[in-house]
Specification:
This is Alkylhydroperoxidase. InterPro entries: AhpD-like, AhpD_core, CMD-like. With about 160 residues, the protein is mainly alpha-helical. The protein has seven helices and no strands. The chain has a single domain, classed as Up-down Bundle (AhpD-like).
């Protein structure tokens, strides 16, 4: 499988990605725990069917020490006992924030209140921003049919 176009090598695509990557760097430098960052990116990518991002974020998380068990259970986190309450709150917010079009009410007050119990204002800001940014990456890669399966840890620095 090949991508529809070389988005990464296209001058306009490179400019767009430069700005999205800058936003992603700000989020990565926030106080949101790294494990939450990786779980959120992986779950949104699974929901959106982004093979490229699912490959990247599961590979990077494993390389950073995340266990295979937890990675395998991200898609079924509600039934899994391996996630903390804070991680579960972030995953719920991620699902609702990613599936806005599927839910007439958007993100529920309950999901927001649960996340607010576990994260301070800066972390909540980072979490909202992360959900938005990973959804942007997912959409670029899904629309472009970016192939998955050969990502190497830290490939993009």
């Amino acid at each position: 499988m090949e991508s529809r176009l070389n988005y990464f090598g296209n001058p306009l695509g490179a400019k767009v990605l430069k700005h999205i990557n800058s936003a992603n760097k700000v989020i990565a430098d926030s106080t949101l725990p790294t494990v939450v960052l990786e779980l959120v990116k992986l779950r949104a990518s699974q929901i959106n069917g982004c093979g490229f991002c699912t490959d990247m974020h599961s590979t990077d998380a494993a390389h950073a020490g995340e266990t295979p068990q937890r990675l395998n259970l991200v898609a079924a986190w509600r039934e899994a006992t391996v996630f903390t309450d804070a991680e579960r709150a972030a995953l719920e917010l991620t699902e609702q924030g990613t599936r806005i079009a599927d839910a007439a009410g958007g993100v529920t007050d309950e999901a927001w209140a649960n996340a607010a119990e576990h994260f301070d204002e800066e972390q909540l800001t980072a979490l909202i921003s992360l959900i938005a940014v990973i959804n942007a990456y997912n959409r670029i890669n899904v629309i472009n049919q970016q192939p998955a399966g050969d990502y190497q840890p830290g490939q993009f620095g």
